[in-house]
Amino acid sequence: MARRKKIYEGKAKILYEGPEPGTIVQYFKDDATAFNAEKKATIDGKGALNNRLSEFFMKGLAGIGVPTHFIKRLNMREQLVRQVEIIPLEVIVRNVAAGSMAKRLGMEEGAQLPRPIVEFSYKDDSLGDPLVPEEYVIAFGWANQQDMEDIVSMALRVNDFLSGVFFGVGIKLVDFKIEIGRVWDNDFMRLIVADEISPDSCRLWDIETGRKLDKDVFRRDLGDLADAYTEVARRLGVLPSNVTHAHTPTLIN
Ligand code: UDP
Question: Most buried residue, 138, 181, 194, 253, by CB count within 10 Å?
């Protein structure tokens, strides 16, 4: 295959120029990072699992009318997506107190929140992705008031969808992060869900046992990350049910 032009390499993914204008090939790496890349490892199978899982969630969202960048999966590690102009925000939705919120407010991890809470961090690794109020987002022109209303309602729809899907397989969706991009159809601008949705960007707790099935397994040294992600994929029917371990290379294209 002709050598493709690399557009961007991030911590967990590489973006290549796609075959058509306005498309991108998103390659999922096995690399895991935490604490702003202070902690790093390569986890066999993670990229293939996240490629599959992100495909599953993005297709599901499209199915309920939430627009996403996903076009099609190309192979074990790559998917074709629409090129977007990314809004430099991490849009975080929380159902249960955990992570940075629990720390900031001195709350116990696991406390149910009175309602889902949407918050925004400014995407800048050198600053550690600081939490920003909507006022900043609008004042600095990253998005306008209407965009922000659309982003919040989209984030809450994603939350309802993902919470339901996970609940159906015995998993509590504690919190998650999405990224939003702009696309233009002629002169008409639309906001769509971009980046990825995977256990790298969600907190997932087994409802019965409380077992963590997300990147906290890596962040907090709680066991084998690929095992946790394989369990999520298996429950969702994204893997054939006879696959019990991510290191078994039985993912089918
Ligand atoms: N998150 C993410 N990327 C980030 C920061 C957070 O995907 O750069 C996800 C994280 O996995 C969790 C949610 O967003 O599901 C909320 O994360 P939190 O603010 O609690 O930060 P953390 O504890 O991950 O530092």
Answer: 194
